[in-house]
Amino acid sequence: MLAILFGTVVLHLTDLIILFISTCANAWRTHGDTSYDLWYDCTHTNGDYRCHGTGDDDWLQAVQALMVLATIFCLISLIIFLCQLFTLVKGGRFFFTAVFQVLASLFVMSGAIIYTVMSPGWKNDSNTYGYAFVLAWLAFPLTLISGFIYIILRKKE
Prior knowledge:
This protein is of the alpha+beta class. The protein contains 4 helices and 5 strands, in the order αββββααβα. Helix content is 63%, strand content 13%. The protein has a 5-stranded antiparallel sheet. A hairpin with a 2-residue loop joins strand 3 and strand 4. Helix 1 runs antiparallel to helix 4 (131-152), helix 2 packs antiparallel against helix 3 (95-118) and helix 3 runs antiparallel to helix 4 (131-152). It is elongated. The N and C termini lie close together (9 Å).
C-alpha cells in the first residue's frame, strides 16, 4: 500500500511540474530564432533576447486562464490528497481529490485544444510546436490518469 501511495504522489508531483513548466515556458510555438509563448513573443538575435507581450486576443487569454487554472487545481488536489490521507476514514475513497484532478486535466485539455485551433501564423512550414506545447498535451493524460487513480484508490491502514 505504501508503494502505491508513493507512486501516486510521484505521479501527481510530475503532473504538477509538467503543468507549471508548460504554463511558464517560452516555447509553445517556434519559428527559427523566434519563440511564441502564452505570455511573451521573443526573438533571439546576436545573443540578445527581445521580448514583447502577446496580443489581447480572447482565445489567448482563455488559454492563459485555463493553464493557470489547471496548475492551481492540480496543486489544490495535491493538498487535499495529503489532508485526506490523514483525515479520511479507513476504506474511504479520495473522491474530492479526484474531482479537482479531473477538472485540472479538462482545463489543460481545453487550453491545448484552443491553442491548437486558434494559434496564428501557420502560413509556412517552418513554424513548429515547441516543447511547452508538447508538455501541455502530455500533462493532460497524466493528470486524467492520476484523477482516475484517486477514484479507485481506497485508504487502508
